[in-house]
Amino acid sequence: MEPVLDRSEELLKEIYALVDRPIRLMLACGNQNRTLLKNYVRAKLPASLELVAGPGCSVCVMPAGHIDAFVKVASQPGVITAVCEDLLQVRGSKESLASICEKGARVELINTPQEALDIARHEPDSTVVYVAAGFEATAPNVAETILYAAESGLENFCVIPSIRLLPPTIGRLMENETLHIEGLLCSDNNNVVSDTDAYSNLARKYNLPCCIAGFTLEDVLEGLLFLVRQVKAGTAEVSDDSAFSWSPRETNAALCIVSEVFCAVETDWRGLGTIARSGFVIRDELALFDATRRFNVHFTEGHENSKCRCNEIISGRSIPTDCPFFGMGCTPESPVGPCMISDEGICHSYFKYELQSP
Ligand code: SF4
After folding, report:
1. What angle do CA 338, 343, 348 make, to 5 degrees?
2. 352 in Cβ contact with 67 (< 8 Å)
């Protein structure tokens, strides 16, 4: 009698049966990469199916110049900076938010923008600056907090926006033919503001099959199977398997609130340069809630740590084990670059799971 296979094993078997030549796919999302590594599945995939990471970890793509701006604002007297934990240790040109915290700056760790509003309500004599770092899915929530602060006259609250849109950056990467990326897997985290149309455009323009999927092992393997099938058939369709699909009404409401607060502008990405319409700034009408204007701070180019190869890794040009510092001077306890700092960072996941692989 044939042994009963669970769904993941079935999917692996199907992928194996199809991959009969080298195929290179990009897994843009840090969480999806972590799912594969955590389940020790990467090693079970066909050797000729090459998986590279992409620019889908918001901390990893944060350029030093943006960290410098956060540090500059956080160093102002009377400022409380509210930030997610992942960003705390990431160094800009010289300092990180953690290092200026040791010198007396007040930095509070939060999980949601609403927590930053709460701090502002309880600390009326301080200015609370929320560091809004993330991808487009976070934009509606951040926009809501800004509108709430404006409507309720909470003028000691402002936001330093560093929100990124993934599709324009994937487009930039696809212009580089030497990468030979044949398919793109990305997460539904990014699929609120940049809807399926954005990926359909990428698919058409670059003959790039795209799959928007969730974070479970089965979601990721289903996505890989879809992409391998597309590559084998020479087609470039988009599959949206998002578990968080919004209704057209919800999507419209989210888009309305985002466009009321933000406009899309060119933005810097770590190692990828400046990319048109890949980030947001706060509209003039809400300038009071824009920390960059309130403190006259500009995002500059900054200086990246020249030892670190995160630039190459988030653009699919290297994998963590290509870096001479991986596990040898760069570990989660003593990280050199953002890909080792963030839980979503591919170096972090490789270190935590690939090195322990049974
Ligand atoms: Fe940067 Fe460390 Fe990753 Fe090397 S191992 S690329 S130094 S984060």
Report:
1. 65
2. no
Q: What is the pTM of this model?
A: 0.90
**Joined tokens for residue 88:** 């705390």
- Of 320, 304, 300, 319, nearest in space to 271 by CA: 304
Q: For residue 316, give the amino acid letter.
A: G
For 333, phi and psi rounded to 5 degrees? -75, -30
SS3 assignment, position 309: coil
- CB of 53 within 6 A of ligand 1: the answer is no
- Right CATH number for 1-323 from 3.40.50.10610, 3.30.70.270, 3.40.50.720, 3.40.50.11740? 3.40.50.11740
Look at residues 155, 197, 173, 220 and name the one whose alpha carbon lies nearest to residue 8: 220
Task: Express each pLDDT in 94-147 by its tens digit.
Answer: 999 999 999 999 999 999 999 999 999 999 999 999 999 998 888 999 999 999
**Does the beta carbon of 325 sit less than 6 angstroms from any atom of ligand 1?**
yes
Dihedral sign (CA 294, 296, 301, 302): negative
Torsion over CA: 22, 27, 32, 37 (sign): positive
Ligand 1, atom nearest to 310 Cα:
6
Look at ligand 1, atom 7, and give the residue with the nearest C-alpha: 308
User: Are 51 and 182 within 8 A, CB to CB?
Assistant: no
Q: Which residues contact 252 (CB under 8 A, 6 or more apart)?
A: none
SS3 label, residue 133:
strand
CB atoms within 10 A of CB 217: 18
325: closest CA among 309, 339, 341, 349?
Answer: 309
Q: 3-state DSSP: the chain helix, strand, coil percent, rounded to 5?
A: 45, 20, 35
Q: Which atom of ligand 1 is nearest to the CA of 326?
A: 5
Residues in the chain, how many?
A: 358
